Every structure is written in C-alpha cells, then in structure tokens.
Amino acid sequence: MCDRYGIPHSQLLGGDGRWTALDRAKALTWAEWQRAMCPECHTRLEEWDQGRGGDPHAYVTDTLRCPGCELIEQERDHVPTDRSGYGVKIQLLPRHQHRDHT
User: Are 77 and 85 in contact (CB under 8 A)?
Assistant: First the structure.
C-alpha cells in the first residue's frame, strides 16, 4: 500500500507522514525485493535454486481462462497489423457505460 500511494510506512501505521530513516530503509528494501521478482511469473530465482534454499519444484502450473482476456484477444484479431493498427488499445468497459449500449 505504501508503494502504491507513495507514503512512508510510518504514516500507514498512523504517523504524521514524515519520512524517517527506517521508512527510507523499508522503501529501498521493498524496491530491491520487487526488482528481484520476475515480471511475468512473479517468482524469484532463489525460490527455485536449491543452492540458495529453494526448491526446483516450488511451484506447479494451473490453468485459468479469463472471459475478459478472451474477449480482448478476440477483439485484437480485428485490429489491423499494418501501421493503421499501431497504438490501438483494447479495454473492457461495463456494458452500461459503453456508448453503443446506453
């Protein structure tokens, strides 16, 4: 939460919002911990490495089908692959908010 809102940990706990040395140390440690995480699977190499206390079978895969992601992928099939499709973003909106369904 502190990272998301850019506040010191002590403020989250009820402090006055001034950054202390401990707050800075926690923020730097958190940033380092985040950098060590794979951006795709969100695991860390040491979790897999037996030499570093990990387990090569620390995780198992599971399959999940997200209807929202499926709909986005289907719509992406309609985006041109030439320059006219550059920068096209596909988003999900609640039906009642979409201009064609209000």
Answer: no
Which residue blocks in 15-80 are alpha helix, DSSP H? 21-35, 45-48, 67-76
Q: Measured between alpha carbons, how far is 10 from 72 in angstroms, rounded to an integer?
A: 41
Whole-prediction pTM:
0.57
Identity of residue 67:
P
Choose among 34, 7, 30: nearest CA to 18. 7
- pLDDT band at residue 71 using 50, 70 and 90 as cut-offs: very high
Biggest CA–CA distance in the chain, Å, is: 59
From CA 49, how far away is CA 81, in angstroms rounded?
41
Number of CB atoms found within 10 A of residue 65's CB = 6
- Write out the two tokens for 99: 């201009």
